[in-house]
Amino acid sequence: MKISRVGASVAAATALVLGLSACSNNQAATPNSSASASTGNLTGTLSGGGASSQESAMTSWIDGFKAVQPGLTVQYNPVGSGAGRKGFLEGQYMFAGSDSAMSTDEWTKSKSICGPDGAFQVPAYISPIAVAYNLPSVKENIKMDADTIAKVFNGSIKKWNDPAIASQNAGVTLPATNITPVHRADESGTTKNFTDYLSNAAKTAWPQKAAEAWPSGYAGESAQQTTGVVSLAKSTEGSIVYADASAVGDLGTVAVKVGDNYEKYTPEAAAKTVASAKKIGGMAPQDMGVKIDRTSTEAGTYPIVLVSYHIYCTTYKDQATADNAKAFGKYVLSAQGQKTAADAAGSAPISGDTEKEALAAIDTIKVA
């Protein structure tokens, strides 16, 4: 994907929140003088935490990386983007995963931990967010425009056969089942991306700003992390949930209106959407955080999409941590790493110029 840059003023208003790297971490790594990803001589532990949506991809990365670097243990705690950021800042983690891009304010704060250039983020993969539902009697992909999705999640539309839904689904028998919206109870990058879509594409029905915390006052049920909300939706007939598409399993999924068409989620449609994203800017020179256009009418795009990031320090305090972070970061972005993630999570791989830029960014990691 080709990414262009927008000014820092846009970043201040629209940047999505990402965790900052606590590079003065509390976990010591075994020293490695100048080990590379290909030599297999790295040792110690590299700990990370954050987005639970990355769990499937992260498992595949850790397993694949272990074959390359058997002496280095990578640990990842899928606590959610919010909790991951907090742990990152407190020195619990050496890198973070997040479904939201780091803000300029947080980048400024990271300078005290990561040196004068602060932290930086690179895309780890691109993934659609599915709007999924539990209606065993409906075999088709239910069609909804942005306004309808917003009204379902704000509680204005209460039954599945509501005229607003039925009018977009001619020929589909919709039950008179009550709708149970399911949302995240924890702070979540997935929530931030989903509400960013609603606040941009359905401003009247969803006047709230994008946020990682679900807005209070709306009816529905909640659960912790991706696995929690999907499990709740699967056990609740009539439910509707937003979640990383890799996790929804056999739930039905909404075809979202884009222009004059209704688009099903696919990795390709997600990647096409992100291809026109603009860089946030105003942070470290190598930072790759982007702002996504949620209102595109271009055919073949899917606007409810997330770029899942890994965030590192530009400068670590010891050689071992720098070597380990650099090696793992390069593996994630390699053709092998991207393929294993795509196979495990159904994500769209990072490739082409974006892959080259991200690898070059990882290569700038240094020691104080």
From TrEMBL:
Keywords: Phosphate transport, Signal, Transport
Transmembrane segments: none
Biological process according to GO: phosphate ion transmembrane transport
Residue segments, region Disordered: 29-51
Pfam families attached to this UniProt entry: PBP_like_2
Keyword Transport: yes
Domain PBP intervals: 37-335
A Gene Ontology cellular-component term: ATP-binding cassette (ABC) transporter complex
Range of residues in the leader sequence: 1-28
Biased composition (Low complexity): 29-45
GO-annotated molecular function: phosphate ion binding
Family as reported in the entry's similarity comment: Belongs to the PstS family.
PANTHER family, per the entry: PHOSPHATE-BINDING PROTEIN PSTS (PTHR42996:SF1)
Record's protein name: Phosphate-binding protein
UniProt source species: Raineyella antarctica
